[in-house]
Amino acid sequence: MSLERVRADFSKWAGMEPTMEIAASGRVRGRARVEVLLFHVTEQDGVSKDEEFAYLATNGLSDTPSMGEPGEQRAELVLLVDGHRTRADLKKLATAIADLADGWASDTTKLAHGAIIEGTRLPLFEGMDAVFVSNWGGTKTHLSVDPEILLLSIYPLFDSEVADVRRLGPDKARGAFEKKGVDPNDPDRDPVVFAKIRGARQPVEAKPGKPVGSVTVVRKSWKDIEIWYEQNVPTMFQRMRPGAPASAIESFSKRIKGELPRDYIESLKRHDGEVDLGEWTYLSIENALSNWTRKQGLRRKTQPGSDDRVKGRGDGKMQEVWWHSGWIPFAEDSGGNLLCLDLAPDDGGTFGQVLDVDIEDGPSLTGDESFADWLAAFCGELQGGAYEVDRSGWLVTR
Question: What b-and-e string marks burial along 239-260, b requiring 16 or more CB atoms within 10 Å of the CB?
Answer without folding.
Answer: ebeebbeeeebeebeeebebeb
